[in-house]
Design goal:
Order of helices and strands: HHHHH
CATH architecture of the largest domain: Orthogonal Bundle
Structural class: mainly alpha
Number of domains: 2
Helix content: over 70%
Number of strands: 0
Length: about 150
């Protein structure tokens, strides 16, 4: 059945980095040895410099390999989806979605706080108006209950 077939299949991984990614993968060991003892950022820097020196014809095999990997991925993904698989978002898309949700939650909290503050401010203004109406006092003075006025 489609369901049991899709549960056995894992979502194929998309090739990343294009031809440059293929280049780095093929030469990673050499770059790592050349940069031994240095920060890992030097590996990327060295790889980038070497990639920049390559001519278009020298880059061609890496382009070709990337295209074949991409074509293979597209076929595998189509088969995966045709068999009932569900495409899950990538790592960066998941991070972005989590960040968006965090922002929405924060905005909701701020809106709730603003609403409470408006309510408190409204009550404060109401008390001030009441206070001015009755001569600056909210409760009655003396036993007469005249709202602060003596009759």
């Amino acid at each position: 059945s489609k369901l049991s077939a899709s549960s056995k299949l894992a979502q194929p991984k998309q090739p990343v980095g294009g031809a440059y990614g293929v280049f780095i993968t093929k030469h990673r060991e050499r770059f790592t040895k050349a940069c031994q003892g240095l920060r890992s950022s030097f590996i990327s820097k060295l790889a980038g410099e070497e990639w920049a020196k390559l001519t278009k014809s020298q880059r061609q095999p890496y382009e070709k390999e990337y295209q074949s990997k991409k074509t293979k991925f597209d076929k595998e993904m189509k088969a995966y989806l045709d068999n009932g698989g569900v495409k899950t978002p990538g790592r960066y898309a998941q991070k972005a979605a989590a960040k968006r949700q965090q922002m929405l939650d924060m905005e909701a909290r701020e809106a709730k706080i603003d609403k409470k503050l408006r309510h408190v401010e409204k009550a404060k203004v109401k008390r001030e108006r009441t206070s001015k109406t009755f001569g600056g006092k909210l409760s009655s003075s003396g036993g007469g209950g005249g709202g602060g006025r003596s009759w």
